[in-house]
User: Fold these one by one.
Assistant:
Number 1:
Amino acid sequence: MFSVSQDFAPPFKLISPFFILGSLFYLFATIFLFFFSTENISLLDTKVLSFVHIFLLGFIMMTIFGAMAQLVPVVLEVGHFGVELFYAIWPLLGIGTVLMAAGFLSSAALLPYGGVIVLIAMMIFVMEIFLTIKKVEKFNLVMSSILISNIFLFFGIIFGLVMALGYAGTIDVDINSLLRSHVFLVVGGYIIITLMGLSVVLLPMFGLSHGFSKKPLEIAMIIMSLAVLSVVSSSFIDYLFLEYLGYFLASLSLIIYFYLIFTIYKTRARKEIDIYAMSLIFAYFSMLISLILGISYLVVGYEPLLLSAGWLIFFGFFGFAVTGHVYKIVPFLVWFERFSPLVGKQKVPMLADMVPPKSSQAQFLFAALGVSIVAVAILLQDDTLIKAGASFLVVGAIAFLRSVLYMINYK
Amino acid sequence: MMYSKEELFLAISNVIDPEVGFNLVEMGLIYDASCDDDGNAHVTMTLSTKACPMHQLIQQWVKEAVQKMANIKEVEIELVWEPEWNVTMADEHVKKALGGG
């Protein structure tokens, strides 16, 4: 008898809170949209900052961290240093996010508390990942991406805490210049590089793609890292060229990354367009459109172009990349825990059977419509359209929460 | 030989990949199988990806599927990555189903 270790599939009770809380924060974020009007949508508006932190910390990071509990050993090919540490991460990240969101909205004094709690949660995560990486004997490209992205996250949260202290008035810092670095370190350095690295493992695994080159990943990762360093340097050296060089490099990196995804898509053996494939296609096209809008902003300087680009990167690209993977990761973990011991003894479901078809399709349809409508609404500066898009998104988020609970409770 | 390659493949064909819904033999993941007169079986197989989180489980299922055959004493699983698996190694009906045909 083989001994099957839990290294490659940590206990589901450890990970399920990340997905449940993540989908609840996603729902909160979509409800939050009803309180926006075109007048208060700007990068420094406190409502926008509160909303962005609920979405990025509460939904995107929470879900990525939960997924990483399972994916890190798969990608690094070694067991976790201490997977039990993840029991501490989700409550801290959840409480920290709520305090930060409340801090931005009503009481800036709450920000340092929320910031410190988020910092502790992320430090536990980063240190656990670093100590797990230490066990790796032979590095490959994907392992390097995990290392690089977590180094950027480490510095990104330090910048974030300094900014939180600045907002609360505890210290005197130039928040505007730190904001650029914070955004680029966390969004470009952590989220995008993590997605880049994981995508060459997960997309071919689910699509059965073979024979594509990983060289574009290496180039895209290096260029994105240089973009982050460029923008961070521009926070300290008052030299506009560095900042714009960073934007140019980040755009170039995403174009190369899109090319990589296209080659993986073209070489896939599995042509079925299931909820996973649909979500990923929407995610990558959102990224592409966001890129076009972002570049247009640099040319014409019309702020709604930048806001719409940011919206599409967050809710279109990150949002759908995350929800799409949830439809693969959650069924696997539930199946591994509940059904794998029954293989050969009784009929067990296939992983695809565990995804609720109606609510997953509803989630995709309503969320995709909502994201598209809000993107147009921001461009046209139309308040009614924002509310219309928000209505679709709330229904999509409810359907997503329902799908997650269905998969978790599948018996 | 206690069992032929075909008999061993038939036993292993009960093992289904829960992600794609096909058995490992029709997926072309089982490269070779043999069994000596003493009941010692040897299976050479691969997986569709190195990063497969189910790799331990799948090997265990293959081992158990062979162990269920009468008079089998030992089952050795050899997991190889050369030649690298690709869909052309799968049966025609699998290729057709995966390709949406």
Note: The radius of gyration of chain B is 13 Å.
Number 2:
Amino acid sequence: MMAEDLVIQLINELLVPLFRFLLQPYIFVPLIYPGLLVVIVVIIFILWLERKIAGKVQLRYGPLYVSKRFGGIIQLIADLLRYLFAEVLVPKGADRFIFIFGPVLLFTSALLPLSTIPVGPNYAAITSELSLLISLSLLTIPPMFVLAMSWASNNKFSFIGGLREGYLMMAYEISLFLSILPMVILFKSLSFIEIIEGQTALWGIVLNPLAAIAFFITMLYATSKYPYEIAEADTEVVCGPYTEYSGILYGLSMGYAYIKTYALSLIFALIFLGGWNPILWPASLPPIWFGYSIPSDILLPGLMVFIKALIVMAFSVFLRTVYPRYRIDQAIKIGWHNLFTLSIVSVIISVLIVMLKSVI
Amino acid sequence: MSTEKLLEVFIGPQHPTSGHMRFIAELDGDIIVDFIPDMGWVHRTIEKIAETKTYIQIIPLIERQAILDSANYNLGYILALEKLLDIEAPPRAQYLRTLICEINRIASHLYGIGIHGIMLGSSTAFMWAFGDREPFIDLMQMISGARLTYSYMIPGGIRRDIPHDFQDKAKKAIKFMRKKIKDYFDLFNYNPVTLNRLEGVGIIKKEDAIKLGLVGPNLRASGVYYDVRKAEPYAAYPEIDFEIAGRNEGDSLARLLIRFDEIQYSMNIIERVLDDMPSGPLLTNIYLTKLTGEKKELLKKGIVRFPTLFTALKTKEGECLARVESSRGEAIYHLISNGLLKPYRCRLITSSFRNVIAFKHALIGHKLADIPAVYGSLDYFPPEADR
């Protein structure tokens, strides 16, 4: 009897408050999904997937050595451990403070946009009218740390890589905002949840495919995926801004690109792929804990968005096997000429659709 | 004033693309103002070591200047030595020499294509090319027992006959490669990004190519259809009807595509060699008569053991010059003998050594990012140039 009482008391006094605490949206979203915890799992999974896809195309195995039975899926955990225990070298001429704190701030600031992303229709950390705008604005912060890191490294290749990052940022940033504008015009809102509610019948990608293409290309630019893997082009500038980094500091800067891919893929899934639509489940399924229905408020819509985002990510990493990389001046030219025009055209298409709707 | 504006970048020798060498690039913004290929990092004094070895010991030494292309470099030395010894290999040996040189040319070009691919960022082209080298390396292994350094040719002949199932294996490999080349064109060569990166980049005009003294595919891509195999035929080349590849654009793309052309022409040569292969001895008659006992028995199985005379091979006094078309271009051998066991001088001029000057010419005025694009297209191999 005593033992059972103790267990019940333990559950009541420890686990219940813990769950209540964790289930609050502004804790759950940044910390668990889509935040930190899932980010680490995603980085491990997507890196494995990238190498596995590349292996498939290139007629080889890909990672296999660690956990052979499961296709080497925990290879990345081994790599992570290696990064963790490798010595962090700070070059002599480097600005120590910025050199060490750059990657840390880079990684943390890359996580910020994730907190604005809603998990389900009734579950979001930030229920702002401007959540889409906030998340995109937060996405523009980390490149500044890349620039700072490249300058602090005191290395010519880092310097050139940092300059490249800066030039590329100029080339894609305007198109990034312009390519979400069509969706904003179509659904007359800057809030994720309202845009997703507008996509119950037709997804954004069907309504305005040009905007989706423009956003996807800017996503490749922003996350330095092939063919726009230019700032870190190893055959040209060794590792670009991260040339002098080693150990966990390099691990953090490498993780940054993948967090950004993840964040942009989630945004792509939300505004172009209908978010959690179609809703195939009843409104409030049990168990209902602390005011939230776990399956229908968090689990199912979250999973729906997550799977869509994973498909987008998988496609963006698959491009590595298809394309070589552009030259920096070509990429900037494509950014300003073609991508900019494409996003302007997609805005015009959206305006026309809205005008047609009002006429009908 | 102007010097302060420039950024001097040292690329290599510890740079992912530099290979065993260093480039010193002067950049004005992103534009290359001056470009110095600083070579000699893998100089192994092959010429000097050759002066301390007997003529037979030099064979494995001399092919190590370019292990990707060891058959061609092996043959060049043997041709020079045969001129000094006044002997000539029998027809079957000549055909087999041609065969192994062409297989080696394909493997070497695939290596260059793969490296070019990874320099542009296409890891798929890199992996495919290195994977597709395997069938040809396996063929070489079937003949000589080694994957890279064959030491297959000896004065007056070759070391071993081809195995009986070689023809089928070779035809299979050729069939596979012909099918696979289409994939390269779809994925890599005519990829819009590759075209953007290579078209019009690093142009070497016809007159400049002649003036700079370029050799091999890099010369032929600039519109000079010069090939030692045609100009001064050796081995079985005079008896075989074959084409040489040529393009007129002279840019990096032409230099990439010409390697694919050469792979196709080499496969044609291999087929013709296999069809027309004469039967007969593997070693010249002078040495054949010296083989006795067990060595004579082994000869029937197609295995040539060195006659004892090889341990003290002496040539007549004099000097001679031999040229071969290695996969990266013309290679020249100059042997000077004073009638002793060891050569007095063994001078080598390799193709990469003659092509290195192209960097300085082709890259000035281009962007920093064009360095790997042009480097890969020149198929420059530092150990070959440094010797």
Note: Chain A has a mean pLDDT of 87.
